[in-house]
Amino acid sequence: MKKFINKILSSFLIIFAMTLCLLKAEAQLFPTIEYQVYLQNIGWTQSVTIGKVAGTTDQFRRMEAIKINFKYYGDSMISYRAHVQDIGWQGWKQSGEIAGTVGHNKRMEAIEIKLNELYAQYYDISYRVYATGLGWLNWAQNGEAAGTTGQSRPIEAIQIRLIKRR
Description:
Blueprint: H1 2-29, E1 32-39, E2 43-44, E3 48-49, E4 53-55, E5 63-71, E6 78-84, E7 88-89, E8 93-94, E9 98-100, E10 108-115, H2 117-120, E11 123-131, E12 135-136, E13 140-141, E14 145-147, E15 155-164
Antiparallel strand pairs: 1-2, 1-3, 1-5, 4-15, 5-9, 6-7, 6-8, 6-10, 10-14, 11-12, 11-13, 11-15
C-alpha cells in the first residue's frame, strides 16, 4: 500500500511539474507590450503593460510623447506615429523610439499603431485614448487613428491591448 501511495504521489508531482513548465512556456509565447508616456510637468512615467492605462485622466496633463516596446523572443515588431500640435503626423517609429516631442511643450492629439505583417497575421492591436473634453474615445485598431486632428484636443492617457486572432 505504501508503494502504491508513493507511486501516486510521484506521478502527481511529475504531472504538476510538467503543467508548470507548459504554463511558463505559454506565457513566453504570448507577446509583451510595454509603453510609457511623457506628460506635461511630470516627464516620463513608469512603463505599463498590455491593458493598463498610461497617463492621467481629468488632470489636464497633456501627453507629449510615447515609447512603445513590443517584445517577442527579443524581436521588436511594432510601428506607431503621433499627430502633434503644429507638426501634424510624424513619420513612423519602431519599437522603443520616441513618437511625439520631449521638451517642446507640444501636445499629442492622435496616434496610429500597427504590427508588422508577420504578427498582424496572428494578433490585432487595439488602443484608445483619453482626450481632453471628450473622455475615453472608441477603440481603434491596426493602424487606425485614435484621438482627434484639427480640434486642438490633447491626449491625456492611452490604453493598449493585444488580441489573439482565432
